[in-house]
Amino acid sequence: MTGIKSDIEIARAAQKRPIGEVGAMLGIPDDALIPYGRDKAKLDAGFIRSLGERANGKLILVTAINPTPAGEGKTTTTVGLGDGLSRIGRKVAICLREPSLGPCFGVKGGAAGGGHAQVVPMEDLNLHFTGDFHAITAAHNLLAAMVDNHIHWGNEQGIDVRRFVWRRVVDMNDRALRDVVLSLGGVGNGFPRQGGFDITVASEVMACLCLATDLADLQRRLGDMIVAYRRDKTPVFAKDIEADGAMAVLLKDAMLPNLVQTIENTPVLVHGGPFANIAHGCNSVVATKAGLKLADYVVTEAGFGADLGAEKFFDIKCRKAGLRPAATVLVATVRALKMNGGVAKSELGREDVAAVTAGCVNLGRHIGNIRKFGVPVVVAINHFVSDTPAEIEAVQAYVAGLGAEVFLCRHWAEGSAGIEQLARRVAELADAGEAAFAPLYPDRMPLAEKIETVAREIYGAAGVSIGPAVLDQLQTWEAEGYGDLPVCMAKTQYSFSADPTLLGAPSGHTVPVREVRLSAGAGFVVAICGDTLTMPGLPRRPSAERIYLNEDGQIEGLF
Questions:
Q1: Whether the Cβ atoms of residue 209 and residue 287 lie closer than 8 Å to each other
Q2: The pTM is what?
């Protein structure tokens, strides 16, 4: 579309304030900021501790329908809503995850928002930022090296080399590393065995950092991570290898939330970045709790569709951190609903009211699911220039038929002015009183039943398929005292089912659980469903092919 600036061009033209001025908007003094250049900083740990007695603001979740190649704009809407609340005079902080390099150079792109609803500096945020992900990668791989070293020097813990569960990580999409053979080359290199890599955002170290309340809690969680099993099947923990202290040292600065700003200078805390389809998909508890102490309203997001991100936000993050969300915004686009209604991406520019209406069943399932948690929900239509009035009216009519509210939002093109109506309604909902929030299942439900509850209640499944070996593993963990943990479903983000091609709102299907993993440090059990991979691959034409430095040394191609 001629004349429309790219995201990176809009971000580059932003009039950023010095980071000290951004912090001052939340009452953060200069000496509580650790600057990383002029436009980003970390919050001092002592300052965060000093916030403990303050009252909490209102927590607002932004989630979305299932993602499609047509785009939903969840982060864009999160940023726009924060700017909108600021526009109407509310003291607000936005809390986001840090982007992973894997999707940035793969197919998804970055995670700084888009158009006139972006976080800046966009280039830094999408690339190395303040180095948190590198620290997490290093800490994770230090543990892997120490476990192999422990084996090499006599194996005092009696580790069964056939029962390693601690893989290595790298923050890149690299399918060649999914399964590898380690320690080839002779006696000096250790004992040969099969291993593999996950992407850093799937690391349990990432989950521990995002769920920990402080550095001491982080080290405790790191020590409780299981790295392998002995021949008698008893677990070997990271603390048994004496790695937890050194890992915490590597993560000392990464534990501190990062402060940046939107194009309209609204404060943003960006911290942590677990994937939502293979991890719990929420920014850090430390950043969210700090935001709630510093602002009257905190706008945060949960990754991918509400069946993954919102469910894990409610059932894992809010449960474990004692958070009570006040309202939820569910993002949809006409384009994505058309794809759910059967329209190919190449045909999305053509008006098709019937397809929009058919695709609205995906939106409807998500609305019903969020209501099950007792949290008020409103729908935000993230406007695209190709949307027609008839298509927009079809979505509005469908949502009204469900007794829900819907708002057309033009924040991508207009910034906060284009989302002011939604901001006013969200503030009213948040101020109306405490929501009747409750997780989907109780702590004391058996693990297999928790998995089945999520599959039935959230995915619309008839049930789950869990093999005898997986059931035995779940029962063993229950006997060992892990039965009260929540479950973290690792599933395709594209469908309510485990089949990414089943769009809309499929029901009556079976969710196959092929493997379970105990994240004892993070505090949840991961159920890997269908063909979900913990190390993504690059597409045929990765975004990396279009990212380069121009003649002025500026980055081009990021989005």
A1: no
A2: 0.94
